[in-house]
């Protein structure tokens, strides 16, 4: 699972409507898989990201090269470095195994072979 996917997932357990995002990662096995850099895609995705959640998740995984706030990317060098760091975090960092836990209800969603299992039991719907 890429971190771009994680940035869009939240808990959907019945009655869990607040503080259900971002899901906390634990026991994460991370793999880096190189992908082609696409600056335009990243520029288009940037407004759709929940930035503070992305930074927090990256820190949980030991990745500390993202700034706490989205920088003003007026300078080309800064923009290129920022976008390359963002590319690495969003698209090249894959969680192969682990758990995602809701910060509100503590429901655990397993990740196996890079696929998050977001299915709920019948009583949780």
Give the SSE map:
Elements: H1 3-6, E1 24-32, H2 39-45, H3 51-60, H4 76-92, E2 93-101, E3 108-112, E4 115-116
Antiparallel strand pairs: 1-2, 2-3, 3-4
How would you explain this protein's 3D organization?
With 125 residues, the protein is an alpha+beta fold. 30% of the residues lie in helices and 20% in strands. It is built from four helices and four strands. A four-stranded antiparallel beta sheet has the order 1-2-3-4. β3 and β4 form a beta hairpin.
Return Rg in Å. Answer: 15 Å
How much strand? 15-25%
Number of strand elements? 4
- Spatial gap, N to C terminus: 24 Å
Question: What labels describe this entry?
Answer:
single chain, globular, 4 helices, four-stranded antiparallel beta sheet, alpha+beta, 125 residues, 4 strands
How would you concisely characterize the structure shown here?
30% of the residues lie in helices and 20% in strands. With 125 residues, it is α+β, with helices and mostly antiparallel strands.
